[in-house]
Amino acid sequence: MDWRSVAVAGGCRQSLKLLAMFTGIVQGVAQVRAVQDRPGLRSLLLQFPGGFDRDLQIGASVSVDGVCLTVTARPEAGLAAFDVMQQSLALTTLGSLVAGSPINVERAARDGAEIGGHPLSGHVDVVGRVVQVTRPENNHVLRVELPAPWMRYVFAKGYIAVNGASLTVADAQRAPDGSGWFEVWLIPETLRMTTFGQKAEGSALNIEIERSTKVFVDTVRAAIDERLGPLLPALQSLLRQQGLSLDELARPPLQPK
Known about the structure:
This protein is an alpha+beta fold and 257 residues long. It contains five helices and 13 strands. It folds into two domains: 3-107, Elongation Factor Tu (Ef-tu), domain 3 (Beta Barrel), CATH 2.40.30; 125-257, Beta Barrel (Elongation Factor Tu (Ef-tu), domain 3), CATH 2.40.30.20. The strands form two sheets. A seven-stranded antiparallel beta sheet has the order 10-9-13-7-8-12-11. A six-stranded antiparallel barrel has the order 1-2-5-4-3-6. β9 and β10 form a beta hairpin. 33% of the residues are buried.
């Protein structure tokens, strides 16, 4: 049976009762076996590592490089098909995948599962780009560039999801225009279980901002805008003189990981 012939409606299925959630702990590296493009839709056939797809059913959710996708077909053991909508192709790196591409995968968390990373929805916010790779002894450091305004949500020692992996930000720097970069340090075990060791300068990465950080920053910024009103430009000017910005005032308190 052709794997495309049994496909059903795709995307990441969600309901008011149950939302797919991921832990940010990548469970293995899958490989793209085949790609089929149709108007407004791309279908991916993935080959999973051994044991990953045990009891995986049509309709189940899987994080594919950080993007929540729904299984649309199971042609045989070890294989599953997914449909990717045009919006997801435009907002993520999935549109650049070809046969043979490796990707990080994680199955949706079960009720009561331990959250080893931080809760992820599989909804990518922005695509970042690797601008530097360094390799201190027994470590691997990626510096990732983000466009404005997304750096306002990224702080040193905070959480971020990169291609579906929950990581701690080691360092971050913002530019006056709201863009900037952050760094993540990767241990050998993380490199073994993910595709990060294959990323070079220029590689695109799917970024999901930690949700509670985004809510906190947006709420504080809205409160500042509302209360200061006409005084806001003067405050911004004073902060710039000190090398600061409103993003620093809106920084959430650090949480232990």
